Amino acid sequence: MKRLALLVLIMVASVAVKAQTETLWKSENLAIEETTQENGERVYNLFSKELKYDEIYYLLTVSSGTMQEVYDDVVYYEELCKKAKGVKETHKSNDIATRNENSIFVVVDGDLGFTIMEGYDLHRVSKKMKKRAEEIGEGLAL
Questions:
Q1: Are 84 and 101 in contact (CB under 8 A)?
Q2: DSSP structure class, residue 122
């Protein structure tokens, strides 16, 4: 019985040490996640739904890094959504084109897929990231 209790304690301790991921905000097409690494460092990932598949879809990593890096990308994408249709840019090896005055197409370099991001979703993500920065006491350069 003591061995079983010790085994359970070791398993619980090992789970507590591993990285923990929390979804901060999610819509049908976009998600922002915070992963706390074993060393306490927080990494943020912005995922967007790939458009290639009908029933099965993959979330493409559109941005990843510190809170400030991902927040800057979100603001960049949100501002780009406001431009007229047909504007083309490259940002962090991703090819981007404005779709209309509220969304953009993004060809994700590393994942080799493409997605659409809506301005209103990006605005919600930026608000959630500001709120999260306040909660954890991290300063965001706006």
A1: yes
A2: H
